[in-house]
């Protein structure tokens, strides 16, 4: 006789999932509220951060979508908004005329640098303040374990190390290095 399949969550499982769900619902809006004074959303900050971390200040749109777990249409809308603010430009990829890169402008770089302290303060105050270094490490490990199941194809940069484990002692940034060209097709609808 096979063991009966558990048909409901235990009380501790229900509490853990309820707390996780609340965190996922509340954190983005709370970060948006903290960054509103500088004219950015948390998602816009994440896009600017990805561009700032790129040595050339440019990232192909598909890669940017994968890094942020955004659909190409959502990413395109946000990039268009950042273009209107003068923080990003969209340029054709020199290697492929059908592809486009998002490129950080000097104003975008300045805005990102100005936003970093506000973002760091908000994240520390709302998430990390009462956590020890060990707690932060455990939080990162637990999140990665769950993300590994949610992203089995390792499309997001944060789960890339699961597909191709980094050498011992490698940093997340080293593991996330992008070996692909900085190009991707433009997801904007044709006019």
Automatic annotation (TrEMBL):
Pfam family, one: MarR_2
Annotated HTH marR-type domain residues: 1-148
Cited Gene3D superfamilies: Winged helix-like DNA-binding domain superfamily/Winged helix DNA-binding domain
Lineage top rank: taxon: Bacteria
Compositional bias annotation for Low complexity: 178-191
Cross-referenced SMART domains: HTH_MARR
Residue ranges of the region described as Disordered: 170-191
Any one Gene Ontology molecular-function term assigned to this protein's record: DNA-binding transcription factor activity
GO biological-process terms attached to the record: response to stress
Name of protein: MarR family transcriptional regulator
